[in-house]
Amino acid sequence: MAEAIEPPERPGPDGGASAGEPRRVADSVSLLVRWMSITDANSGGFIHGGTVMRLVDEAAGLAAIKHSGRRVVTAGIDRMTFNTPVFVGELLRCTASVNSVWRTSMEVGVRVEAENPFTGETRHTSTAYLTMVALEDGRPAPAPELIAESEDEKRRRREAELRRANRLAERDQILGGR
């Protein structure tokens, strides 16, 4: 029986939980690659969207774990687009990184590409934005601040802040009507 990997102890200055030192976006980058087989497809040879979504969630979880150093859960998927189908026999590549961090939650962006393993040709198939929450003892826990270094990382952080503001405004509008 395999044993679970435990996250390292992370005591704060007062002995309590700590968010730890700020971390760079590059430190959170995770890559998940999987060969798509017939069991992943419908009768037309297209890979099920749910299969892609599961792998996106796994890649996002890995990026959030690498950033926070904690267990994480998926709080939501803000948006996921499917641009082109993925076919049986292709490699599905999910590249994930943390875009922005709030107190206990993080937005993780995932870019999905399909690769023909014979030719090496790749194409962008999907994009997703997930909100992950860091946990300690099953409760939300502080996540380290994010250091965005490149202009692209700074742009992605600004866009994540806009998506969060839109989510919160939509929630307030819906709940305000009750």
Structure, briefly:
With 178 residues, the protein is an alpha+beta fold. The protein has a single domain (23-176), classed as Hotdog Thioesterase (Thiol Ester Dehydrase, Chain A). The protein is 26% helix and 34% strand.
Structure characterization notes:
- A hairpin with a 3-residue loop joins strand 4 and strand 5 (about 105-115).
- Strands 2, 3, 4, 5, 6 and 7 form a 6-stranded antiparallel β-sheet that branches. Strands 1-8 form a two-stranded parallel ribbon.
- Helix content is about 25%, strand content about 35%.
- The chain is an alpha+beta fold and about 180 residues long.
- It starts with about 20 loop residues before the first strand and ends with a helix.
- The radius of gyration is 18 Å and the shape is globular.
- It has a single domain (about 25-175), classed as Roll (Thiol Ester Dehydrase, Chain A), CATH 3.10.129.
- The protein contains 2 helices and 8 strands; from the N terminus they run E-E-H-E-E-E-E-E-E-H.
- The protein has helices at about 50-70, 150-175; strands at about 25, 30-35, 70-80, 90-100, 105-115, 120-135, 140, 145.
Q: Which key terms come to mind for this protein?
A:
178 residues; alpha+beta; Thiol Ester Dehydrase, Chain A; six-stranded antiparallel β-sheet; two-stranded parallel sheet; 8 strands; globular
Largest sheet: 6 strands, antiparallel
Overall pLDDT metric: 91
Overall number of strands = 8
Task: State the separation between the terminal residues, measured CA to CA.
Answer: 49 Å
- Count up the helices: 2
Using the coordinates shown, work out and report the CATH topology.
Thiol Ester Dehydrase, Chain A
Give the helix proportion (percent range): 25-40%
CATH arch. level architecture: Roll
Structural class: alpha+beta
Number of domains: 1
What portion of residues belong to β-strands? 25-35%
Order of helices and strands: EEHEEEEEEH
CATH class: Alpha Beta
